[in-house]
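pls design
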């Protein structure tokens, strides 16, 4: 039963056990790990790392999907190679004597539980062209890859356990990950391929840990990025992609709203290009219509845009265009736009062909609101047939360039994340700092 009394086999100090099935306990008086069933077991515990595991207190309750557990023991572990890697495993036990572990490292959390030996298949070649040496394995019919492996060292033990907390001291642990899910296997050093412990679990956000704890605590700040654990906030790369998709849809909706909101303010449908008088400049030989001036009109959108839709149905293997000046009638400030359209057609050995269009659109952007008029000269290829130009003038709320730029940046950023995400996860894992073969050969 809970709360039964035990006596330390080293100093005979009496204490109350948290769990009836506890077989290994740490004496609070002499700091020795002892077992009531074996009086010869007495392991002195150094208190050097005691402050490392003060976040949770013995007796704290934690509720997971499988029920409620009580915190019975704490273990501070360290990597033998990277000695700066120190983390705390909080051992919770339920009334059925089943264990659940919460592991905290620099503010990052995972939850694991004991599992049956995994059904490992042969390692498969990597499908990553960025990191071709990444090790892939199939675990329980799911494709996991080796994120990290390291040798364990037990630095500090506190509380009581239904197992010997030092029994994995010196073991080599292998962490396999897949999208937030975690599998850990341990093998005894010198016994390569012989698994001694297996665990399965997942990475947790701090708020998920808080939701399971009965006693609320102040979570430590996250330091750095730890492998496949969540980022600093409750989002990860798949979530970012989903939000990007929603944002792109929203931006396209804004663009559509801008489009349907535009209003026609003028239509010039009798601009004629006749005459045979030709001029020669950077355009080559061309001819111009007389200058056409529109009636003044109001632009009510501040820093909006003016869209000019050019149409010439008389194009026949030639080109035509319009030189447009938008003039503020009060300040004489002028903005310019040149529109050209060309259309060619014919037949060859492949049959009939055509290219170009009778229509084109020009845009004048960032226009302050005010009274304006258009000054237009139509131009066309020299010695071409007479032409009639039609210009439809529309005003819109603003430029869509920023919208398209933002959408393009989101798409490019997602492509970059897709290309490099597994590389950065691998790099942070430390595989590049550990010699795989030497660690398992001794």
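designed seq:
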């Amino acid at each position: 039963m809970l709360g039964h009394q035990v006596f330390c086999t080293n100093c005979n100090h009496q204490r109350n056990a948290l769990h009836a099935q506890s077989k290994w306990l740490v004496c609070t008086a002499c700091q020795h790990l002892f077992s009531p069933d074996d009086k010869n077991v007495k392991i002195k515990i150094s208190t050097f790392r005691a402050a490392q595991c003060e976040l949770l207190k013995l007796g704290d309750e934690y509720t997971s999907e499988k029920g409620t557990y009580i915190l019975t023991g704490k273990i501070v572990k360290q990597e033998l190679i990277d000695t700066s890697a120190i983390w705390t495993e909080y051992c919770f036990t339920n009334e059925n004597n089943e264990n659940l572990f919460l592991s905290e490292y620099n503010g990052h959390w995972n939850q694991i539980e004991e599992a049956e030996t995994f059904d490992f298949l042969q390692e498969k070649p990597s499908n990553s062209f960025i990191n071709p040496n990444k090790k892939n394995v199939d675990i329980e019919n799911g494709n996991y890859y080796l994120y990290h492996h390291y040798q364990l060292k037990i630095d500090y033990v506190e509380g009581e356990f239904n197992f010997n907390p030092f029994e994995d001291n010196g073991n080599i642990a292998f962490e396999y990950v897949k999208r937030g899910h975690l599998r850990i296997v341990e093998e005894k050093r010198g016994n390569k391929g012989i698994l001694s412990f297996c665990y399965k679990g997942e990475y947790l956000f701090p708020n998920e840990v808080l939701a399971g704890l009965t006693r609320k605590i102040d979570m430590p700040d996250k330091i750095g990025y730890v492998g496949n654990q969540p980022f600093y906030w409750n989002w990860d790369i798949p979530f970012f992609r989903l939000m990007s998709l929603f944002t792109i849809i929203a931006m396209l909706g804004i663009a559509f709203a801008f489009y349907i909101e535009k209003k026609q303010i003028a239509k010039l449908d009798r601009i004629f290009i006749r005459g045979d008088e030709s001029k020669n400049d950077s355009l080559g030989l061309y001819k111009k219509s007389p200058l056409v001036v529109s009636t003044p009109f109001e632009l009510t959108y501040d820093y909006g845009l003016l869209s000019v839709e050019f149409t010439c149905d008389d194009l026949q293997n030639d080109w035509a265009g319009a030189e447009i000046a938008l003039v503020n009638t009060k300040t004489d400030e002028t903005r310019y736009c040149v529109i050209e359209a060309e259309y060619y057609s014919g037949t060859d050995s492949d049959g009939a062909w055509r290219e170009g269009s009778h229509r084109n659109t020009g845009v004048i952007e960032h226009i302050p609101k005010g009274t304006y008029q258009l000054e237009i000269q139509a131009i066309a290829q020299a010695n071409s047939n007479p032409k009639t130009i039609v210009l439809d003038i529309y005003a819109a709320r603003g430029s869509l360039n920023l919208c398209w730029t933002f959408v393009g940046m989101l798409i490019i950023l997602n492509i970059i994340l897709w290309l490099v995400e597994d590389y950065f996860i691998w790099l942070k894992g430390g595989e590049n700092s550990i010699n795989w073969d030497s660690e398992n050969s001794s």
